[in-house]
Amino acid sequence: QVQLVESGGGLVQPGGSLRLSCAASGFAFSSSGMSWYRQAPGKERELVAVINTFGHSTYYADSVKGRFTISRDNAKNTMYLQMNSLKPEDTAVYYCNADRGYWGQGTQVTVSS
User: Which pLDDT tens digit goes with each residue over 40-65?
Assistant: First the structure.
């Protein structure tokens, strides 16, 4: 059974940091490209960051470049998103995605004072 389980979301003040995790099981994680997406209320889901199978290549949306870092640990079947200098506009549900078409259930990130 394929599972992608996000964790690490929560409420943080502007300028703060959070680290999201995505634990994968039931498929070949180490041979899958992985991504983080987010969806804010009333908006379409948008791509945040992408990482290739070995973690050597990454891509970031302009809105998060320089503040977010995507990484993965293939030995632990886990992907991460380190989010620094958070802004209120980063508030959204964050989803992890495998390039095989699998999605997690999402984790809420709220940036507010």
Answer: 999 999 999 999 999 899 999 999 99
Residue 96, token pair as written in the block = 């992890």
Quick one: pLDDT at residue 38? 98
Please enumerate in sequence order all residues whose Cβ is within 8 A of that of 19, keeping only pairs 6 or more positions apart, or say none.
8, 80, 81, 82, 83
Task: Determine the average pLDDT of the residues in 26-31.
Answer: 95
**Which residues, listed in sequence order, are joined to residue 67 by a DSSP beta bridge?**
none
**Residue that is written with structure tokens 């690490």 in the block:** 8
- Write the secondary structure of the chain as one string of H (helix), E (strand) and C (coil): CCEEEEECCEEECCCCCEEEEEEEECCCHHHCCEEEEEECCCCCCEEEEEECCCCCCEEECCCCCCCEEEEEECCCCEEEEEECCCCHHHCEEEEEEECCCEECCCEEEEECC
Let me know: does 98 contact 27? Beta carbons within 8 Å.
yes
CA 27 to chain centre: 18
